Amino acid sequence: MSPHKILPATAAAAASGAEIIDIRPASFGLSDLSPEGLVKNIINEFMSPRVVFTHPDTGSEHLIRSIPTMVLYDDLGLEIYDRITNLDEYYLFNAEIDIFKRHAEEMILNYIQDDSVLVELGVGSMRKTKYLLDAITKHRKNITYYALDLSEASLRDCLTPLCAEYPEIRFVGLLGTYDDSLQWIRANIPQTVHKSFLWLGSSIGNFTRAQARDFLSRVASAAMNAGDDFFCGIDGRNKPEDVKLAYDDPKGVTAEFILNGFDHINRLFGRRVFERDAFSYLSIYNRHEGRHEAYYQSKVEQTIDLQDSIQVHLHRGEIINVEYSYKYSDSEVYNATAGTGLAHVDRWKDSSDRYSMFVFQKPSVVFSPEPRLSNGIPVLAEWESLWNAWDVVSTTMIPSDRYLEAPIALRHPYIFYLGHLPGFLDIQLSKAFNLPLTEPKYFATIFERGIDPIVDDPSQCHSHSLVPNSWPALDEVLAYRDQVRRRARDIICKLADAQDTAVDKTAARAVCMCFEHDAMHLETFLYMLVQSDHTLPPAGIVRPKRLGQQPLVPLAPAALAQVSAGQVTLGTLHREQDDGNAGSSFVFGWDNESPELTVQVDGFSVQNRPVAVQEYYKFWCAQGKPESLLPKSWTDDGAAVKTALGPVPIHADGEDANGPASRWPAYVSFDQADAYAKSIGGSLPSEEQIARIRQCVDKTTKGTSPARPRNSGFVEWTPVDVETPADPDSVSQIDDNGWELTRTHFRPFPGFETSKLYPGYSSDFFDDHHFVVLGASWATVPTIASRKTFRNWYQHNYPYVFAKFRVVV
Hints:
The chain is α/β, with parallel strands linked by helices. Helices cover 33% and strands 18% of the residues. The chain has four domains: 5-27 and 90-238 and 330-361, Rossmann fold; 34-75 and 241-326, no CATH class; 373-531, Four Helix Bundle (Hemerythrin (Met), subunit A); 607-804, paralog of FGE (formylglycine-generating enzyme) (Alpha-Beta Complex). A nine-stranded mixed sheet has the order 1-2-7-6-5-8-9-16-15, sandwiched between helices. A five-stranded mixed sheet has the order 3-4-14-11-10.
């Protein structure tokens, strides 16, 4: 039973089934949102100018006073706000209604599951809510609708008529704050129940961008499980005159809403602190920040008596901030969710293209955008994220009768890799910590190392584990995996918790090596899954709507960026051979990443973005569509790109390459990229040139990718569109959305020393067949994607890598 108090209902509410639960903690009277807490906040904010005001004309900045936005939302303020939503000028409300009118059924059918719950953060308006409720009723879905608000009166006013009109739906009011609701949901709604959150009215705009990201992160971590949805209404960066009119209507309703805040303050203080007639409402749209700003402006010189001994003098014209309403570009929406544990899966726009309803979802695979390290070692949470990703990929995407399938020739079947990962981890930990091997010990002999023969001559292959006559059963391998992980957890925690000076660097290196080994195989395992016709969609991952949408505007052609000459540093000073040195810091890198090497790079011209699918498709057609130039990342007919979420069309109309995958980077082999580059009189960049491009991008913000966050670490499960930088002299980001192919043979740096922990890791592949590949793909974990010294490599004719390319001319 819930420990929270169920509030007594009025007779009408009781008859209609309305139930309201007070979820506020016992200490609410001391909180910032209680009347006493609000008074304290008013005094603190008003007394100490701390809001930075930027003058819209001059750009000059100075600190100003502020008043908490909460003062606007007393009962009368809510009534006035309801009048605002009826104004034609306040387009946000009507835009949201427009979206619900046209798409409510789609939302309900695609996202709202039967026997699930809807949680509306902030009590809604019947004028919007009814479209969702009508669709729920029409499709006979069993739903419990939770409405959150800090006003009991608002909850009753909203829920009572809804209960009467929709008796099939259970309505529950939650009296409390956002954070109160997250705690209550976690404690009271079973994790097996699907949840959909509604955050409407562009409420996200009342938070700063950092606060919005923090709140979304709290919702995802505290109250959502894999597969749960979050519907978020967001106002766009629209015409300044439209925004200004929406927040400063000719009838003065918004001004009355703002000035009523002073009446509320006076009631809280029990006396007339502010004379509202001595102030006017000042409305400003800040184009630079993308936000509307609401201020009180003093009409006269005046003194405010906050308390007996506290007085504040205001100059005529002085302003006091009371509210911001942030607007969002598409890139700002993506940045708001970056690192929160939420993925973009859908979006609807209103008819005027000014307002959007986004659907974010908590996916089953989530990585922190930045590596979480302690003593240079991935913390246990990083390992759990990696293991969870492995489990989703290896146990939900393969049909139960297909574990002996080998979709890529010259590679082992799936079952080998399910044993190889725990087998390699167990062997390395046993060596590093002088422990016995996990039973069954013979697994170490068959799972230690896989095969990677030369494609041109499969008889040439490095040493590898003995291939058994028959592989162990799946349940045996998974039980072995779980035993190894249990032992590893204790070791990982002890290393991470140790004092830095007490860390055994050899043991730390072994653990880091195992982590990145697991991570690299996670990606190469996906290479195989993408090639199989039997692969299932990953559990808990929704296929985004963008995968079925044709690009709206043509892809801007690539320009040639001029990269100046300069010195670049390759590799790192941190070497395995130095681990025993007292006082040396531990930074992990593989043996081929050291020693450090400085080289001079001549100036060169390079395409400022990767070659897109549509461009490579035209090249392939011009060559007569030979099989040798057909990417293995495409279907055999060249009609679609293979992905972990199924094929995505290259074409939308006939043979024109203008489908949803047409603007993705072309994933091809080195040989195919080399042929394309030569056809336009160029070549692939060298390893040193990629390093120089990275160096130039890092030194100027104009080279970074402005329209989306980094596509690595499973932010998406497919590539996303390449971007042509607006400035032709800038270069798009290297380290995401696909590895970058180079023309540099994979060879050691001068002074290379092979790893003692894993002697054959690099040295087995120093030949004429392998080329250096740099950067990261969508399936590369942040630990690797963020380390620019990391050197990947593949055979020149290996066609399965998630690798893009650009051309040096």
